[in-house]
Every structure is written in C-alpha cells, then in structure tokens.
Amino acid sequence: MPQPWSAPVATGSVHATVTIPGSKSITNRALVLAALSGRDVTVTGAPASRDTNLMLGALRALGVRADMDGATITIGAHDGFRGPAEIDCGLAGTVMRFVPPAAVLADGEIRFDGDPRARERPMGTVLDALRSLGAVVEGDALPFTAVGTGGISGGAVTIDASASSQFVSGLLLSGARYDKGLTVHHDGKPVPSMPHIEMTVDMLRTAGVAVDDAEPNTWRIEPGPVGAVDWVIEPDLSNATPFLAAAAVTGGAVTVTGWPAATTQPGDAIRDILTRMGAEVVLADGSLTVRGPAKLSGVDIDLREFGELTPTVAALAALADGPSRLRGVAHLRGHETDRLAALATEITNLGGDATETDDGLAIRPAALHGGTWGVYADHRMATAGAIIGLVVPGVAVDDVAATSKTLPDFPAMWADMLGETR
Q: Of residues 120, 138, 234, 308, which has the active-site annotation?
C-alpha cells in the first residue's frame, strides 16, 4: 500500500494563479480520431497522465506510431489497424469504451484487460452493440476479445446509455469508418453527462464527419473518411475545480489561466455551482477567478449533466454552513469506484453527516476532524480529500498517487498553490 499523504492545511486564505494541464477527455477523443484518420496528426497541450499513456499504448498495440514529447503527441500515418494485440485499459473509461469500436476495424484478435476495478465497470452495452453491428466480440466485460476482420458493416443500433455517456461517444467516434456508417438510438432513462456527447459530436464535425443529432436521443453518422486535424487541447476544467474550491473554502482567491470562453467540457459548470454556494466568480481575459465567501452556503443541485464534479461539490458541501442535496448522479456508482458510497463513507469517517439517496447524496453541517481519507483508486476521491484537508487538520489521503490518472503531479501543484497562502 502507498504511504498516506498528509493533506496540507492552509494557514490562511489561499491566493494563487494556477495553470492546469490539458483535458484528458478531449485528448483521448483527439487521439482516437487522429488514429482513425490514418494520417499524420499532431495533438498539442496533452496531459502526461496515466489515461493519456494508456490510450497511447492502445494505439501502439494496434500498430499506430504514437510519440509524446512533453505536451505534444505525434500520431503517424498508417494503412490500417492490425492485430493480434493486447490492450491494457487500466482504469480508463475512455480506453475501455472508445478503443473497442475502433479495434473491430483491425485484422486479428485484440484482447482487452485492465485494473481489477475496471473488470467491474459496465461494458456490455458497447460490446452487445458491436456484435449487433457485425463485429465478433467474445465476453461481456473485461477481459474480452474483439476478433477483427478489417471492417464491419455498421448500420443502426439501439442501446441503453443511462449508465454512461461513454457508451454513445465510443460508438460515434468510429462510426464513420463502418461500411454503412452508424445510427445510435438511446432508449432508457436520461443519458448522464450529455456535454461529453456534445464534445464528441463537435470534434467529429471538426474532423469533417457528417453527424445528424437533430432527433432527441439519436445520432446518425455518415460513412466516410475522418479528417486529419492538428488538435489543440483545452485545460482540463474538471481538474481545475479542486484549486478553485481551495479559494472557496479558505476565503481566498484563485485564478485558473486559459479558461475557454466557450466549451463543451462539463467542468465549466463549476462557475454556477460556486456562485450558488456564495463565491464570487469572474471570467475575464481568458482566466477564471474565484473569490471565496466568509461562509459557504449549502446547495440543492442536479448534477446529472456534470456528475464528474460530484466529489468536489461533496467536499464543499461537507464544509458548508447549510445542508446540501446532490441529485441525478446514481450512475456514479459505476465509475472508478462507487463514488456515492465512497463519499458518504469517507465524509462520515471524518465526523461529517453524509448519507446516500437513490440518486445522490444528502450532506448536512457537522464538525469534521482528522483521519484517513480513503481514495479507492479514484483520482477525484483523492482531490476531494485534499480540499477538506485544507481546513481540517490531520486528514491523510491514503493514495494521492491516484490523481495521476488525469492530473500529473497533483501534490506538487497543490503545494505550489499553497505557497501563496496568506
């Protein structure tokens, strides 16, 4: 087991300017599209995170040249994916859900596996969809094997994507390379995190792929080439939220540089959330600044569209003066860990008052104390513990290294931010 990380306590209000590495979500979509183009592509601003490295490893396994130098990735031209191959998904949802629809275009057996927790994450929706579209796939969860023959027919498929928007995005990214294109229809409870599907559609169109999403819950992809685009990656706005939360919980001011004026990233929703909790939020000249209030207010909010922010919001709610209700995030039970159970358990272990509901969390004010904060191999659980540790002495995060999944060297960034505390 890793050595627990003693979360630094802020000695005063945090005042800092922070630059956040690129978005993992945008990067891994860009890498799949680059590989599908079959041409030379450059991706600039990519994070040196575990999820990025896992995606690069997957593409290399499929015979694609993929080189990373600092924050720049070069994808080489190729004449098609090839097998046999072994692909390590780690705990990256973007690898386990985005790569199989591309791998079925390869010639040969492609075997997928990942971390122990990854074997528990839902995969059947994507794999059943690929089978119905003409692919040969053996297995219903990790580990599984795709038996490629160089292409599949494609066509129309109906799925239930209520457990993850990645089911839709993963299919759409490769749909243009299927013989008949692809139509995906969702039939079920509302799809969570729709902004991530909007991100996928926007990037497909940028790559010249014809996408018709005029009908609700239906996406049509015309068959054809995927254009070669040199992608420039935005900062990861969800990874920015713990740093902005530091201002909110200490009454300080934190500025994140490079904040886009318009974006499909769900992390942009933090602006409204922090405003509702009493912070002052200003977006100007390409930077976002948050100034914390004297006291944080509780919030009653539906987080379905931006569920990845739930750990940050839960940490803020545990430190707020009033009760909070976080709704619409039942799907988080199938993420890197069961995030609802994990958050309720860890907040309670520190003396907080947090309980699970059918679709979220109820968090009430309570006096918190130090103790070990469990991470469950989940990067966002680790950053939530760091937020609480800013104002609660004695919090020890049991696996801060989990943050490397999407954010390289989080402890050093956190320490640099606190270096400007006053």
A: 308
